[in-house]
Amino acid sequence: MAARLPAFGDNRNPLARSDYHVHSTFSDDAVSTLAENIAAAEARRLETVRLIDHVRESTTWVPEFLTAVAAEEIPEQLEVITGVEAKMMDVTGRLDIPAGLGDLTVVIADHQFPGTDGPWSPDETKSRIGRGLSPETVMQMLFDAYFAAMRGRPNSQLAHPFSIVDKIGLGRMDATEDQAVEFVAVAVETNTTVEVNQKWGVSRVLPLRQLLAVDRIVMASDAHVASDVGRYDREVLQPLAYAQRIDPRDRW
Amino acid sequence: MAHRVLVTGAGGPAGVAVIRSLLKRDDVEVFAGDMDGWASGLYLVPADRRRILSPGKSPIFVDELIALCAADGIDVLFSTVDVELPPLARRRSELGAVLAAPTLDTLETCLDKFALAVRCAPLLRTPITHLVGPASTAAEWDFPIIVKPRSGAGSRGVRLVHSRADLDALGDDDSLIAQELLPGDEYSVDVIAAADGHVVAAVPRTRTRVDSGVSIAGLTVRDPELEATATAVAEAIGLTGVANVQLRRDTNGVPALLEVNPRFPGAMPLTIAAGVDMPSLALDLALGLDLPERAEFREIANVRFLEDVFVDIAEILHSENAAHTEDD
Prior knowledge:
The complex is a heterodimer.
Chain A: E1 18-22, H1 34-43, E2 48-54, H2 62-71, E3 79-87, E4 106-109, E5 113-114, E6 119-120, H3 122-130, H4 135-152, E7 157-158, H5 163-167, H6 177-189, E8 193-197, H7 208-211, E9 217-220, H8 234-245
Parallel strand pairs in A: 1-2, 2-3, 3-4, 4-7, 7-8, 8-9
Antiparallel strand pairs in A: 5-6
Chain B: E1 3-8, H1 13-23, E2 28-34, E3 50-52, H2 61-72, E4 76-79, H3 85-90, E5 98-99, H4 104-111, H5 113-120, E6 129-132, H6 134-138, E7 145-149, E8 159-161, H7 164-168, E9 173-180, E10 186-193, E11 199-205, E12 209-211, E13 214-219, H8 224-236, E14 241-249, E15 255-261, H9 268-273, H10 278-286, E16 301-303
Parallel strand pairs in B: 1-2, 1-4, 2-3, 4-5
Antiparallel strand pairs in B: 6-9, 7-8, 7-9, 10-11, 10-14, 12-13, 13-16, 14-15
Helix pairs in contact in B: 4-5
């Protein structure tokens, strides 16, 4: 299979024909309408676009959002799917989502650190580390939150996993190989989709080559404006192409 | 997790030496890269850590390494190949991994033998050196002298010029330098300098037997004068990290600078065995760890032989590049 992947420098990666993370005006910080995002996806000839917006436990507009998407005219060759993006609240993997989502896909993010008693800001987390909370413990809490969140809500999608790690001043060396291996195993077991996120790049905690062991890898622009829909830079595409290409089981 | 380190040039003796040194550390995962699937050092690391690279001269070489470093989460990159170093150093900040190599200024100075001589002449004994042209015509020489390419490694293009007529016949060619021929013994000095530029160790060694440009037997020499001269060279070129300084004694026995290879030499195992594990120290340097003020070494000799690595045929990586052919 790897032999048929694009050559290095060729950005037409099959995964780049989709965008699994596009925000609309239902999110406070995004500027394009659902229709504008769908038009942008069509213009880029995407095969699949996932429209998602940020929710919290108190969010009430999800039914309205789904109705609005359903009312859009969808181009024939484009698959439009939906979801909501929510942060992990604490180390038990509790998600900041409203009740009644049914089987709607939740895109799970580590916007805040999942603490023992609720989300900790990066500064608060750093301060706790400064006061003696060990980096090993902090990293284990983060992995535990991910494991629990994936098991608590199978078939979810992980947005830019481990983006919190840089923000709290930790790095790959604070994680263990066992944690990385378990992360991949839990993602596979729970049918979790994992993003390669344009905005957040490739986490060093779980390098792409390891991440590719997860069956469901998707590309995600994290667009907050329609012009970013389906747009991926070389900085993301080339490592992905490389990681796909160098599977030693395939000769190329 | 362990530090992930990629060593390129895994087929060369320097690459093998660096790989073997780093494999001894339990805090390192060593990845081996080479343009040729038959590069021996590839097979010193586990199968999932072997990487085929484009040739260092390829326009996509650096882009590909940047992608590789991101895809594999590489923390530190050791390049043991001359042609790879300047392009990598030019884009050092983009690599995503720390490049365990001297600065671009140091590399460019070393790779231009005229610039190197000019830089070092005020500070230590250097052979009289001029660009081939008016300067070499005007200079007074004791023939024979050496004429060699201003840039380039090894003995390629090096010739003895026996008379002024032969020198003048070369015309104006500033890609060549004319250099005083030094008659004395030659030494290779492996040098490592810390981030602040202080020299941690300078280990002189002989190249008593050489096969295909690679030293296959030699010994380390404790000689304060050689060590001081190599240290002065390292300071003159602003070295951080590892370089190999080649010295030769003049008629008075004073060590003079021949050239500097700003990379790991193939004979590095001798220096490691003498007590200074330069690849390991260079890794510490790349990781931002403090190096010792000074590392001591002892006098020891080595002889080398070829060694086999046996692998399943299916494990041999295929590449379109051959690093060596029968024509080499």
